[in-house]
Amino acid sequence: MNASVNAHAQRSLPALLLALLLALLPLALHVPAASAQDAPALESLRPLVDALGKGSFTDTEKQVTALAATGDPGVVPALEALSNGDLYLRKADGAVVIGKRAGSGLALTDPLTGEALEPVAASSLDKIRVNNRLRRTIRNAVGGLTLRAADTRVRRQAAEAIFKAQDAEAIEALDDAIAAETDAGVAKLMREARAAAVLASDLTTEEKIAAIDTLAERGDRDALSMITAVQNSGATELQEAAGAALARIQKLQAAWDTARNVWFGLSLGSVLLLAAIGLAITFGVMGVINMAHGEMVMLGAYTTFMVQNLFRLHAPHLFDYSLLVALPAAFLVAGLVGVAIERGVIRFLHNRPLETLLATWGVSLILQQTVRSIFGPTNQEVGNPAFMSGAFEIGQLTITYNRLWILVFALTVFAALLIAMKFTRFGLNVRAVTQNRRMAASMGIRTPLVDALTFGLGSGIAGIAGVALSQIDNVSPNLGQSYIIDSFMVVVFGGVGNLWGTLVAAMSLGVANKFLEPVAGAVLAKILVLVFIILFIQKRPRGLFALKGRAVEA
To answer: Backbone phi, then psi, for 400, in 5-degree steps?
Structure first.
């Protein structure tokens, strides 16, 4: 029965991980859709654009209105150039062009196609003049055109710009755009932009109360500031509506703040898990207080730096795959250094924990100075591959891809290590030595070899933790020192040598830190967590999940 369950677990875990990666793939590979304008359709607009250079301000305003009535966003560059004073009439053929200063002359651009034209002297052009009234008309026209653009992103950006500007003059254009909008998300954003514009307008109180309700449903900090301004305006009826809306928004904000703290806590917990999981193994098996564990993390980060430099020099087009090479390289480098430390120093100091602490502290200083002498004391640049760059939003919660991938990576490493410990002969030997070293040796297990391999495994995992940390932290000789104390707190709190305890402790301490920081500050939050762990260990000396075994229970 147990064998079949174990076999099923081994078969199902890769499938679950593959499903998770496939679910996250659309988030990591966001490819924007391109939009193209039909050339004949643009050319049909040429007479309307050329007419901008003829007649008075009133005539030009009529032509702007006519261009806006086409609903074609292809005329937006011409209108924006007109508003900025960069639109000219070419005397030779009466064509309207966009002109930019270039030396003694003007560099010309076609206002519809964007193609570069032959530069001419300023004397061969007449500048098309604008006034403030005409600029307002142009602004409304451009807003209406971008709100009806074919590209969803352009419409979204236009609505967001109107929302932030609270442009009351865009209300009519928004009404037309909302009526024609087919995308539910963009339509919602347009309604919110209209509500923001209504609050800045002279429309009726009923309209403004409806706008307050719309903004209350949005519930973010921008809506909060807009409604707060209305509450302070002095109108009694509006104040009551604004007060009720503010209470709703503050309740919603509290919920999103909680979700934000949980996410940041899990993100910090994943970092602590990566940094501590290797230490949990070596500390649990050998009882060694390894103060050089942080330097294994640092070696992994510098290995990533060297691998990325090789990719930059020899295969820059493959840079996004550099982390796939850096992971095994960092594991090997840190693992081999860990085996060398165990064979050269630690094996002579068994059952002398204070001396192992001092010895490994000295090793950590040697490693720091060696790296400082080779790479220098300054931070080194480590880049993020494309799939780890950027962010996406869930409601009011912004999730960065690098933090998300590190969380996935930490849980993957944890699952792989758990499988190795549960279902391999090496894992069986490690658990036997952890529970009762003498009994394991009497059964023929080579405990010195298990010690060396375990120390190498723990150091190797610290090395791949350095690969992950290089994506969110500065790569410097002092990188490991930032995590060594937190790693020991995680191991002691979770239970020495217990992987599940390490996971629970890392996530718990990460979330606790993020909830305490807004109240007590970053430094005091760490102190409070440390005091809590000290008090907890007084009550449960073996941590959350104590190992069971004859040596432990004796």
So the answer is: -85, 145
222-232 tens-digit pLDDT: 888 888 887 77
CA distances from 319 to 80, 106, 352, 413 (A): 39, 41, 46, 23
Exposed / middle / buried, residue 68 (Cβ in 10 Å: 0-12, 13-18, 19+): buried
Phi, psi (rounded to 5 degrees) for 234: 110, -15
Residue range 67-93, pLDDT digits in tens: 777 767 777 787 888 888 888 888 877
Of 213, 184, 191, 382, nearest in space to 302 by CA: 382
Average pLDDT, stretch 31-44?
A: 50
Q: Cβ contacts of residue 189 below 8 Å, gap of 6+?
A: 156, 159, 160, 163
- Cα separations (Å) of 466 from 269, 288, 322, 378? 15, 21, 14, 17
Q: Is the dihedral of CA 382, 383, 384, 385 positive or negative?
A: negative
Burial class (CB in 10 A: 0-12, 13-18, 19+), 350: middle
CA 216 to chain centre: 27
pLDDT for 122: 77
Beta pairing partners, 338 = none
pLDDT of residue 452: 83
Strand partners, 120: 106
3-state DSSP assignment of residue 107? strand
Q: Which residues of 201-214 are buried (b: 16+ CB within 10 A; e: fewer)?
A: beeeeebbbebbeb
> What counts of helices (H) and strands (E) characterise the chain?
23, 7
Query: Residue 393 to residues 396, 397, 398: CA-CA distances in angstroms?
Result: 7, 6, 4
- Strand locations in 238-396 (E): 391-394
- Asked whether the beta carbons of 71 and 84 are under 8 A apart, the reply is no
CA distances from 56 to 67, 88, 210 (A): 17, 15, 41
The whole-angstrom distance between residue 55's C-alpha and the CA centroid of its chain comes to 53
Q: Is the pLDDT of residue 364 over 50?
A: yes
Residue with tokens 């034209």: 117
pLDDT band at 45 (very low <50, low <70, confident <90, very high): confident
